[in-house]
């Protein structure tokens, strides 16, 4: 599991700009015109990003294992 | 240019006693001329009040502003007691650790699964109301039991116990309607009641949200303390009581007093979702803003330098009427296309029940329009009784005919 990477995406059609992710993981999400975008799509594993994905009321954030595409968050 | 604090006068806040659903004109004046102003609330230390949409979003969304820093301070507030703990006094990551435990029950997808049941409840309530014949009190017959039944079923709280906890949950939103001793007593009763339900789940596990919290608590990974669990459940129960319950009559009041907009909505029920968003923007539910955010460092905001350690209150109602964001902001327009209102707040404390409230409000408005095409007030408008001494504006009773 050395140098494991995550791929973070935000579905702009689902995002309602609640600002929860940008507050929970400020280094990872930013709101542009009331829609969240990930600052970096490929990141090192980081708990606050999982928190953001699990807290999104629209399930607009997906965190995947960059190697195999397995969904890490949100839980189904 | 940055103003120094000596230049600005400190105003008493809220500016006036609530009058129906009218927003005090001073919000608009301040938003234009003094977007950050000094205010003194009935309790606690003075604060800055932000009225512009952009500044409000910054205060609520920017991690340089903290709720956790309110702990240990004499927080500016309109409630006599200060809630020194709980999820509303936390920042990430502690806040997110707690919120995650319940957030999944309130996603748009999960809420959509509850819509058929909400419709069924609404229909049953209206059947009963129609059978009883006009007039009826919309608050008691419809607006209260609909959201209360939904949140009870979601949490796993027996709807039959409503008579007990309905009174206690008022303590959470009381400002002067109850004495501080009574508020403390009611909150203790509510916590004890939730404690009983939790104890029952330890004997017989359940699939409801309370059951899920008990499992999270007892899974022993230290994510949730007993007190946090009780406070969280009590908060959800109380919030499920006092917000949507109040907004349904508020929405009906606004529609009945805007007959042209109501006619548009009747002609095209597909407008219900956008109507609900516009009504959320238009109705200033809160009597005043509260839950000040404390600056963790010096921040330039609205032409003022907010110093580290100073509290800022963000006015959602003023932000929702900002002409920089909303065309003709004081006009109710149920077809408003872009509507990024902050009626549910913004940032990490964005209302956890927002999707549930949206669904319930859509179901309530649609059912009332469909079933009661002749819906009208059964008393002259000036005779309506409005709540006082509460955090929210709303009708005590709403006599209607159809």
Automatic annotation (TrEMBL), chain A:
Gene3D superfamilies: 3.30.70.20. The keyword Transmembrane helix does not apply. GO terms for molecular function: electron transfer activity; iron ion binding; iron-sulfur cluster binding. Residues 6-34 form the 4Fe-4S ferredoxin-type domain. Pfam families: Fer4_13. Keywords: Electron transport, Iron, Iron-sulfur, Metal-binding, Transport. This is Ferredoxin. Ferredoxins are iron-sulfur proteins that transfer electrons in a wide variety of metabolic reactions.
TrEMBL record, chain B:
The keyword tRNA processing does not apply. One of its GO terms (molecular function) is iron ion binding. This is Cytochrome P450. Gene3D superfamilies: Cytochrome P450 (1.10.630.10). GO terms for biological process: antibiotic biosynthetic process. InterPro entries: Cyt_P450, Cyt_P450_B, Cyt_P450_CS, Cyt_P450_sf. It comes from Micromonospora pattaloongensis. The keyword Manganese does not apply. Belongs to the cytochrome P450 family. Pathway: Antibiotic biosynthesis; mycinamicin biosynthesis. Keywords: Antibiotic biosynthesis, Heme, Iron, Metal-binding, Monooxygenase, NADP, Oxidoreductase.
